[in-house]
Every structure is written in structure tokens, then in C-alpha cells.
Amino acid sequence: MTEVTLDERRFRERFDEFNEIGATEAGGVDRPALSDENERARDLLVEWFRDADLDVRVDRIGNIFGRREGREPDADAVLFGSHVDSQYNGGRFDGVVGVLGALEVVEALEDAGVVTDRPLEIVSWSNEEGVRFQPDMLGSGVYAGEFDLEYALGVTDDEGKPFGEELERIGYDGDAPCEPDGVNCYLELHVEQGPSLEDAGVSVGVVEGVFGFSWMNVAFEGQANHAGPTPMHMRRDALVGTADVTKAVRELTATGGADLVGTVGSVDVWPNAINVIPERVAFTVDVRSYDDDVVDRAVDRVRDEVACAADREGLEFEFEEIMRLEASAFDADCIETVADAAAAAGCEYERLVSGAGHDASYLNEIAPTSMLFVPSVDGVSHRESEFTEWADVVTGVEVLLGAVREQAST
Predict the structure, then answer these.
(1) pLDDT in tens, 147-160
(2) What does pTM read for this prediction?
(3) What is the largest CA-CA distance in the chain?
(4) Helix (H) or strand (E) holding 62
């Protein structure tokens, strides 16, 4: 087999240039989906795709594809990539490593004069993070048939701006159908976003599946009143109810299942004044496990805790489960392809399950899928201090290269 070598300098220069877009003073990036910064990132990615002689298409939800034909153009393609949207004040590695790593794989093959049997397609999924527009993984979800296109285009941000209108504003309302067309498999390189690989002292994670999770929106409605003259027994404090549920979420993770995690991540308080009893609080709850029954029981428990807290404090409440994704076990053959590629690259690896959701979860419903992880220093992600050693990034891309070459052989 022809030797193929990554151009580490090219890869690093591109990584650094790309992360100048939306760069924050603290060393992170801020380019949430369909923002001006996200538009600039998309523009640069498309430019690089075209420079690499890839056939570029954009579908109706804004997913970007770059295709390199193989010896057998009618064969199903190997699809691989990730995303380039970020959290607000997020990290430089999340998603980007997978997209730019995929581009480096294709360019390294081109440098070596290697043409694969199957076509190769790089993808950058639209709105993976879900920080501005919920639900998350919207682009891959529409592509895989999980969400209706019209529903997705009508999703709004906190300012009431529809996803479809913002997609048009930045010029990425493509005309290609948002549906699979001849996908042999899907592979995704990503940072771990947890501490397991660093704790194990290995450079690569072979991912066997992804946690299931539920997102819930909760609101308590009480009564605003003056913080001084109002006796404690007369108060209907929406924030007290929220605090009770927050504590209950932490406690249920200790008894609900060995891998169950739970988070109250977003809280909005009205009127949010130092001398006024909070009248209304809207907040979110996120629960996750690799066991779907554990997630189901956790959702029921949260709903019960909300009702009990409302009763204790004399509050009205609203409860809605806005997102439910079942745990996903990846394809056994794809998993072994990644493991074999790691062994061939001479690196130690760890088999693990992802606690974070990824586009691969939806792709797994329509095509054989697997992922590979590279370590996150101190297990940090979704914040500006997110970091992965560059040597580990390069190792991950080398493993991705090996896995892609294997899957692209007919």
C-alpha cells in the first residue's frame, strides 16, 4: 500500500488561521450557528474545499459537503467530518479538529497520488452545538430523517429569528436535497470532552457508542413582592422552587444509575432585582446515561420533583421535554476498523462510550458509523480553556486516515 504522510505544517497553519475567526481574548472562539463569525468560517472552509479540487455542495439545512471521486464513482461514499459552529465563548478544538482533520486526510491522499476505490465526502454539519438554535445536531438530524426540514427551518433563537431566515442571510441556504445519497459509512474524529483518555495515558479513543439524553425546559411562576416587608410565610418564590429542583437533580444522579449525569445549565430569573422576590424562573435540565431506561426514570423523577417543589412553594409550573435522543451503539465493523487503524499507527488506544452527543448519533441510524476521540486536557470542553496536545491531534488524524482508506477499499 502506498505510504501517505500528513503535512503537519499545513494542517497546523490551517487550524490556527481558522481559529482566528471569532477568536476571544481568553484563547477560545465565539462563532455560534449562523452568526457572522460562523458565516466567515463557512466561507473559508468552502474556499479550502475548492482549493483542494473538491466538488462542493450545500444542502437546504446548510450542511456543507466536499466530494473527492474514487475509482468507482457509482460506489457509496465514505462520509467523514464534524462541525465548525461553536458554543458561546467555546473552545478551538471542538468540531474543528474533525473537519480540518478530514480535509488534511484528503489532501494527504492527493499529495501521495492515491485514489481510493470509493468516493470520499467531507461534511461540516449545521448547528451541531444547539447553543443558539435548539435542538442541537439540527443539520445531521434533518439529513438522517430525525427532523422535518420545514420544522428545522422554522426553529427560532432567543430573539425570534428563524433558522431558515438566518441561513439565507449568511448565504448558506443551499439547494441540494438534505438527505443521504449513497453513504457507505460515517466516521467522525472529535475531542473527547472528558478525562478518560488522559487518565488512561493514551492518545486515541475508539468510541463504541454515545449516551442517550433528555433536555427539559421548566418554568416556575410565583409572585413578585418587596424583599423587605413581605413575611416569609407569605412568599411564593420561584427561585426557591428552582433551587429545590437543582439540588434534587444532583441527588438523583447518585441513585439513578451508575453513569447517570444531570445538569441545570441555564437559568433566567424575573425580575432579577436585588430587592424583589423572584416571580418567574425558567431553567433547563439535562440528564444522560448509556442506559435509556435510566434516562426515562430520571425524566420522570425530575417531573415529580418539579411538581413537589411547586406545591411546597405555592407555584404554578410548566414542564416540557424538548429533546430526547436514545443511546446509540455504533457499528461493530466500523469500530474494529478504527481500532485496527489505531494499532497500525502504533498508538495505544482505549475503548469508551461518549457522554456527549454528536452528529454520529443520527448518522448511526442510516449508515454504519463509528467515532474516534483524542484527549481533552483536564477533561475540559465547552469553554475557552479547552485544549488538546497537538501531537495527539496529529495522531488522531493519522488514525482517521487509516480508517478512511480501509473503508474506501471495495
Answers:
(1) 999 999 999 999 99
(2) 0.91
(3) 81
(4) none
